[in-house]
UniProtKB/TrEMBL annotation:
It is an enzyme of class 2 (transferase). Pfam families: Aminotran_5 (PF00266). Residues 1-18 form the signal peptide. Belongs to the class-V pyridoxal-phosphate-dependent aminotransferase family. Residues 57-370 form the Aminotransferase class V domain. Its EC number is 2.6.1.44. One of its GO terms (molecular function) is alanine-glyoxylate transaminase activity. Substrate binds at R371. Keywords: Aminotransferase, Pyridoxal phosphate, Signal, Transferase. One of its GO terms (cellular component) is mitochondrion. This is alanine--glyoxylate transaminase. GO terms for biological process: glycine biosynthetic process, by transamination of glyoxylate. The modification N6-(pyridoxal phosphate)lysine is found at K221.
Amino acid sequence: MFFKSKFLLFLLLQCSMSSRAPPKALLQDMVVPPRQLFGPGPSNMADSIAETQSKNLLGHLHPEFVQIMGDVRLGLQYIFKTENKYTFAVSGTGHSGMECAMVNLLERGDRFLVVEIGLWGQRAADLANRMGIEVKKISAPHGKAVPVEDIRKAIAEYKPNLVFVCQGDSSTGVAQPLETIGDACREHNALFLVDTVASLGGTPFDADALKVDCVYSATQKVLNAPPGLAPISFSDRAIEKIRNRKQRVASFYFDALELGNYWGCDGELKRYHHTAPISTVYALRAALSAIAKEGIDESIQRHKDNAQVLYSSLKKYGLEPFVEDENLRLPCLTTVKVPEGVDWKDVAGKMMTNGVEIAGGLGATVGKIWRIGTFGINSNKTKIENVVELLSKSIDETRSKL
Ligand code: PMP
């Protein structure tokens, strides 16, 4: 009797387990159409980077992979222009760099000054609010930067422990000048944190000369690698603050000292922390190799020159950049005013049917602008001229529908 009922139960379980059919979608091949990515990111992958994605995996503690991690650290020091020992890549997208910086550099009772020129300052303030940190914001109207004098004054008055600046705000296309902010931070015992997710490699940045204490970026913009790693660098001052924290860093995954050890920054025996995304690290190594071959300053100059190509192409078709002061435009991401009576979404949709992505605004700029990213290999004269020609054609086509 006992065996009979057990057998029935077994049959019942078998039936209920096998009754679920596999999802039909997964029985089909994945569809990935070709696309020219001229939005705010991700950008297109260069062939030399894409090739790394089919290489066999190595164990994350194998000596050959440890060597690759070491190469990546050297490449990141080169593009951030820093001697910082604690220079590595956080496993995660740009946001993980932001969270890593903030959970390590802020603790309860600290004051945080945020320079807000668009969405990314708001995001930094939001993260700090979630951590229970007091935040003060100093803002510029969208399309403008905050005058450096005002930032220096705010540092002197508010006496923050940490100052956040986004160098290139991808929601507005503004490049915030950074000169002398680091000096004011040193004078008033604050740390200086800079977001370079949308700007690194596309506009001048020198972590050590600017006296930056922490800088993070991402792989999917100028570097032309897949999203998934956030390059980051901490100065000795920043590491000292982290070592002397009153409370332990609340996140294990983002603990900078643990990550620094895993990436071989502290010269100590390497401990297991997590499993690095091996293929994405290969891609970053290839991306850094491409920049090393071109030269970081040459890459920056190319983005600057091709931004001029973009501005004159826009002019040719009667289109205007959103950021009026040319000196405050981010060379690798240009925001363009949507002309009166034009539906930005229809135009972007039309471009997409031609295999080209550009994006609309983000946050407060939705409906007002388009965002054209010309990152890395997409910073190319012919490609840019073609994109602007298609933009103008798409505007005309959507207009004639009205
Ligand atoms: N900061 C800036 C300036 C960005 O442009 C972005 C992404 N667009 C991020 C941070 C966040 O990066 P991710 O989407 O890779 O998390």
